[in-house]
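Consider the tokenized backbone below.
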């Protein structure tokens, strides 16, 4: 498993994870992942108290697969959802 992070100490420990950390002093290395996780936290899980791990997994899955990838527009994709961007990209290829 690869964990994208901003060099936080909690992510640098040895938990059999591969860390993809931004370079020291370079906030742009992982900016796409930082933006994604910010959106996930703010739009999908903010102030939500999960009762079980399975509930958390289901909510996060639904947020990503049903909202983030299919409905939510992204300025970096020409204000298209990731799914629509991919469809347009494949048509152009």
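A designed sequence for it:
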């Amino acid at each position: 498993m690869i964990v994208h992070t901003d060099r936080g100490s909690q992510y640098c420990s040895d938990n059999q994870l591969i860390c993809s950390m931004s370079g020291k002093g370079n906030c742009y290395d992982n900016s796409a992942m930082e933006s994604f996780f910010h959106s996930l936290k703010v739009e999908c899980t903010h102030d939500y108290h999960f009762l079980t791990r399975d509930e958390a997994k289901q909510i996060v899955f639904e947020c990503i697969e049903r909202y983030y990838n299919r409905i939510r527009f992204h300025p970096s994709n020409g204000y298209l959802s990731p799914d629509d961007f991919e469809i347009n990209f494949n048509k152009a290829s």
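The mean pLDDT is 81.
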